[in-house]
Specification:
This protein is α/β, with parallel strands linked by helices. The protein is built from 21 helices and 28 strands. The longest helix has 20 residues.
Length: 641
């Protein structure tokens, strides 16, 4: 008998001794980080509401209780009884039964009403039918991504269960070493923006944090071939943790599966969905531009199949010696600060990913309170000594003034924006300004993936700022459903009609103008002196957006329909930049994040910024807080214990 099997037998015996004698435990197994307990008496478990919580506390594990398949009622009978328990106003749209695990997935417009106060309705469902309910939200805006991901995971449910059981056994394996050390190796995004990738190593475990591309620099990928990563073979990596879905952090994760990695990805549920959306678009753009994609779409599906979604604040075992907790980073939907607790109180490391410290219209500001943190790996995108962004109110005022002036001239405002985050922020500003009469109500056209990304935001309102979340729970108050928002889905013909039509606003991907439909809008409107190109997002060095922002007016154009590149054209439309809408904290925000961090770390590694930015921030933090700071280069390794 293996160590894990022996451990499960001991846990089963302990659970059996703890539960009342009339509750029968038939099986105990691991699925990923969770301990799954099967019982012939799910109704009795449900009646004792605190029993699962008490077991989880005693065993120090996340526990899911499922009915043994032998005691399940027929789905045809259970369906009507479940609907009779759930309030009609919950808006149940689907019930999907899975006899192999005894779970019923309930899709509803208002999941909170299905859950009930402190889970009371869920317990009532189990008491009534025996099935274990799982609740998901019906997207208020139809989302092909959410639908496809859910259908794919349903289709792969049996294989995914095998994957989770294998991962669970790996997590709970016996420790192999008595040594103690903690190391971080930098595989990318040091003294540069993009290709984020780090390896966190202990004698037991190697965790890869992020695996992205570098905007504007084709072929520059993380140093995955080094021994700390895949150089020693794909099984050298035990787990992948993804901070957020932007491509400079997530684009090359499917490449790991092409190279033979077969382990888990830990991230939030919205990040999983956005990751798939952006990666498939990444492949599509590469094909349209005549480049060989680094991997195939099958690898994207592999990544989704291996993803284990976590909620903010959940402490989760991801290895025998590492616990992971995700916290809101305030950057984009589902973005996380990743906190690693290593060993039995040995050491704690937090990776900021990309953060925004202050509240925005869309998100609450980044969390910076932790039980312990000895080392912080901190993004430095705006870490330069002069990188101070405009106050949010001033930024909104400037944007509205640009829009008003352009519309008065009879022109059109074109905003290159990231599909995820900045687009929704701008949408909220425009919706409020038009609703309150500060701006005339004109069409706001959303091109590229912006509409789909907005639908995903509406699916996960619990990750949004409190006030927006409350509005989205009620469809008639959903600001993203305002009538002025139009999804461009008619391709080049519709773009031409909009360009020839009345004054309007266009939000289009890509945010750094490195391909995508924004190039088509430049072709249609670049020669219009009444129109305005307005930057609201960070433009990385080497991108077309940065070159235009710096004054270049002769620009190459793609015609947006896959027929290749054109000759250059002279840009005659006005060009404006509005600071303050970035999803990144500015220099002051980064300093405030560290200043108010509780506890304050002993060491800070400044990464994800141009060379001057990381060095400026590293120096400032050292002098202001008397802490050890570093501005590492790629391929450096730091030992902390």
């Amino acid at each position: 008998m293996s160590t894990v099997d022996r451990q499960l037998e001991e846990i089963r015996a302990e659970i059996t001794s703890e539960v009342p004698s009339d509750i029968t435990i038939t099986e105990v197994t691991y699925e990923g980080p969770e301990l799954v307990v099967y019982t012939r008496d799910p109704r009795k478990f449900a009646r004792k509401g605190d029993l699962i919580r008490q077991l989880a506390s005693k065993l120090r594990k996340r526990i899911t209780v499922r009915p043994d398949p032998s005691v399940l009622s027929q789905p045809t009978d259970a369906r009507d009884r479940i609907r009779s328990v759930i309030p009609e106003e919950a808006g149940v749209t689907d019930l999907d039964f899975h006899p192999d695990t005894g779970e019923v997935v309930i899709e509803a417009e208002k999941p909170g009403m299905v859950i009930g106060r402190h889970g009371s309705t869920l317990r009532e469902i189990t008491q009534e039918v025996g099935w274990t309910p799982e609740v998901v939200r019906t997207p208020p805006i139809e989302s092909s991504t959410v639908t496809n991901v859910r259908n794919f995971l349903k289709q792969e449910r049996e294989e995914r269960r095998d994957i989770l059981e294998r991962i669970g056994r790996q997590i709970h394996r016996e420790k192999m070493s008595d040594d103690e050390y903690v190391r971080i190796s930098t595989l990318g995004c040091c003294r540069e923006v993009g290709r984020a990738a780090f390896v966190l190593s202990t004698p037991e475990t190697r965790v890869l944090i992020d695996c992205g591309d570098k905007p504007g620099a084709e072929g520059e990928v993380p140093y995955l071939q080094v021994p700390e990563a895949l150089g020693a073979g794909p099984s050298n990596i035990d787990a992948v943790v993804l901070t957020h879905a932007h491509l400079d952090h997530s684009a090359l994760i499917p490449l790991l599966y092409k190279y033979g990695y077969d382990g888990p990805i830990y991230t939030t549920e919205p990040t999983r969905d956005l990751m798939g959306l952006l990666q498939l678009d990444y492949l599509d753009i590469a094909a349209k531009e005549g480049r060989t994609p680094p991997y195939e779409s099958e690898m994207v599906r592999d990544a989704i199949k291996h993803t284990i979604p976590l909620e903010y604040g959940d402490v989760t075992d991801i290895a025998p010696d590492i616990k992971l907790t995700l916290h809101n980073a305030g950057h984009i939907l589902g973005s996380s600060i990743c906190h690693f607790h290593i060993g039995d109180g040995l050491y704690n490391v937090a990776f900021s990913g990309d953060i925004h410290y202050e509240d925005t219209r869309l998100f609450n500001g980044a969390v910076n309170e932790f039980p312990r943190v000895e080392t912080l790996v901190l993004e430095s995108t705006y870490g330069g000594r002069n990188d101070y962004q405009t106050d949010q109110e001033d930024s909104e005022r400037k944007l509205k003034q640009i829009v008003e002036n352009t519309l008065t001239r009879g022109g059109k405002v074109v905003v290159p924006a990231f599909a995820v985050g900045r687009s929704q922020e701008i949408m909220l500003v425009l919706e409020e300004a038009m609703r309150e009469g500060e701006l005339p109500t004109v069409p706001v056209h959303l091109d590229g993936m912006i509409w789909e990304a907005t639908a995903i935001h509406s699916t996960y309102p619990e990750y949004l700022r409190d006030g927006i979340r409350d509005r989205i729970f009620h469809e008639d108050e959903n600001p993203f459903l305002a009538e002025q928002f139009n999804h461009i889905d008619g391709g080049e013909e519709e773009r031409r009609e909009v360009a020839d039509g009345e004054p309007c606003i266009v939000l289009s991907t890509s945010g750094m103008m490195e391909g995508g439909p924004i190039l088509s809008w430049l072709e249609h409107l670049g020669g219009d002196t009444d129109s305005t190109l307005t930057f609201v997002s960070f433009q990385a060095q080497g991108t077309l957006g940065r070159r235009i922002q710096n004054g270049r007016r002769d620009v190459p154009l793609g015609n947006g329909n896959g027929r290749g590149r054109r000759d250059t054209m002279t840009l005659e439309m006005n060009v404006e930049t509005v600071d303050g809408f970035s999803g990144h904290a500015d220099r002051q925000g980064l300093e405030n994040f560290v200043r108010t961090m509780n506890p304050r770390p002993e060491k800070v590694l400044c990464v994800h910024g141009d060379e001057s930015s990381v060095q400026d921030l590293s120096s400032a933090l050292y002098h202001e807080f008397n802490m050890r700071t570093f501005a590492p280069k790629n391929l450096e390794t730091f030992r902390f214990v």
